[in-house]
Amino acid sequence: MRHVLSALVQNVPGVLAHVAGMLASRGYNIDSLAVGETESPDLSRMTFVIVGDEAVLDQVRKQLEKIVTVVRVDDISAQDYVERDLMLIKVEAPEGSRSEIRELTSIFRGRVVDVSPTEMVIELSGQEKKIEAFIDLMRPFGILELVRTGRIAMVRSITRPMVKGMSPPIDHLAAQ
Amino acid sequence: MRHVLSALVQNVPGVLAHVAGMLASRGYNIDSLAVGETESPDLSRMTFVIVGDEAVLDQVRKQLEKIVTVVRVDDISAQDYVERDLMLIKVEAPEGSRSEIRELTSIFRGRVVDVSPTEMVIELSGQEKKIEAFIDLMRPFGILELVRTGRIAMVRSITRPMVKGMSPPIDHLAAQ
């Protein structure tokens, strides 16, 4: 089972080392970790994707909560949530394959951010499966380099009924 | 000075703890860290943004290279590069302010990924300054939650002359 945990931590030196050390010493299987700023300069948010059963999740959560610099831990995957990952991918793109790569990029709602006579860099955000499908499509062209951020997630708003005159959420589209 | 380091590391448990521990014990000021998968399942890539002079950068680089599980370290900011960060932001969006938020989102090439009668979740990727400008624009509406991935970066292709019939790189546009 895949779980997404979101931890609000104090923005102080050493907090990442503390958290990473705890996870490593206990041998938890962390699939992805993203650390980024929040709306407050004093706080950072760490998003973990953990593979394991409920018992493992519970342990990780309790261990995180024990760390003084960890303010709050939420199990996002227990709720309805939006998940995103960002990738930069550099592929071989000689003149003959450039238009095909551009078309695939457009279908996946990606963006060409750099181009040279032989290569292209594409930016793509979305759910993990969408990003992996795009990577598979790029393989035949030749992947030169690939960087991903690790996943971030946010719980959807609780009240979901549609409001008159509003267009529907485009998440399902954007996520393919 | 702001430096972007990209480290290719073995995808083994404990490597993040090792790297984070080294950085913390030496008190380096890490502005951002992203850890994500690469084109190879055996390797992960860590992107650091470090604030400091050349001497600090050199120390961090040498310390990273000493770690056995670190395969390679590149100073991306020494070259011409593309940098991206991803954000999910939840803002207060009652009916009266929804269209204005949608318009700002569209100008910044963001995407509305969730909506409720009172709130909206927007996804936005781009350079740090673009993301920060958007956050500032959202403040008056009321920011409820904000998650960021931390920055990733990729060196541009070396051969930059334009090829006949190609559209120019849209990076400058996308980055506002």
From TrEMBL, chains A, B:
Pathway(s) annotated for this protein in UniProt: Amino-acid biosynthesis; L-isoleucine biosynthesis; L-isoleucine from 2-oxobutanoate: step 1/4; Amino-acid biosynthesis; L-valine biosynthesis; L-valine from pyruvate: step 1/4
EC nos: 2.2.1.6
Domain ACT per the UniProt entry, residue ranges: 4-78
Pfam families per UniProt: ACT_AHAS_ss, ALS_ss_C
Gene3D superfamilies: 3.30.70.260, ACT-like. Chain A, domain 2 (3.30.70.1150)
Record's keyword annotation contains Amino-acid biosynthesis: yes
InterPro entries the record matches: Acetalactate_synth_ssu, Acetolactate_synth/TF_NikR_C, Acetolactate_synth_ssu_C, ACT-like_dom_sf, ACT_dom, AHAS_ACT, AHAS_small-like_ACT
GO biological process terms held by the UniProt record: isoleucine biosynthetic process; L-valine biosynthetic process
Keywords: Amino-acid biosynthesis, Branched-chain amino acid biosynthesis, Transferase
Gene Ontology cellular component list: cytosol
Quaternary data: Dimer of large and small chains.
Protein's job: Catalyzes the conversion of 2 pyruvate molecules into acetolactate in the first common step of the biosynthetic pathway of the branched-amino acids such as leucine, isoleucine, and valine.
Family from the record: Belongs to the acetolactate synthase small subunit family.
PANTHER family in the cross-refs: ACETOLACTATE SYNTHASE SMALL SUBUNIT, ACETOLACTATE SYNTHASE SMALL SUBUNIT 1, CHLOROPLASTIC
Official protein name in the record: Acetolactate synthase small subunit
